[in-house]
Specification:
Length: about 180
């Protein structure tokens, strides 16, 4: 298992190595079950909002001032999921804007301050109202629990190969999403 970011350019090599050894690997930029539910909720909300151009979408993330990466891996995955769910948003803009965002841009800036935990928010805003979806990590317990659940799944159910938390969540939510739960 790995929960680090910055190595994704070597994924093909890792997949070949894991395959050659008939091993199993689960990777994620964030093992929190709550964050992984948040990804799916945000993507579904983006898909629902997409046909309504009066709702612009954007977001932000806050982390403590000791965090070295910006945007976070969690923010990158979140934005990837939103962009994948929408036809009218094509690219992310991470930096400060001194201009209005283009209609196809998803603005998602970062703030590093104090000892704030990880907070990620997605906002759907129209002239009439605002819809906000937020995930706040209170501590590292959620990450630890998700990593344990992923390790158990990797050993008992996943099978050989390279897997992600998205694969795990799909397996767990399969019955709930099919109406069987």
């Amino acid at each position: 298992m790995t929960g680090t970011t910055g190595w994704h350019d070597h994924l093909k090599e890792i997949e070949e190595l894991v395959g050659a050894k008939k091993g199993a690997l689960c990777w994620s930029s964030n093992y929190s079950l709550g964050v992984n539910l948040f990804y799916r909720i945000a993507a579904f909300a983006a898909k629902l909002a997409d046909p309504f151009p009066e709702y612009d979408v954007g977001g932000w993330e806050f982390h403590h001032n000791k965090k070295v990466d910006s945007p976070s891996g969690t923010a990158k995955i979140l934005v990837e999921k939103i962009l994948g769910a929408m036809t009218r948003k094509k690219k992310a803009v991470w930096e400060k804007l001194d201009r209005p965002p283009a209609p196809d841009e998803l603005h998602f800036p970062s703030l590093r301050v104090g000892s704030m935990p990880g907070v990620h928010a997605v906002v759907f805003d129209s002239p009439a109202d605002t819809i906000e979806i937020t995930h706040t990590g209170r501590n590292r317990e959620g990450l630890a629990l998700g990593a344990i659940v992923a390790a158990e799944w990797l050993v008992t159910s996943a099978g050989p190969g390279v897997h992600t938390m998205d694969d795990l969540m799909g397996a767990i939510l399969k019955d709930a999403l099919s109406g069987k739960a």
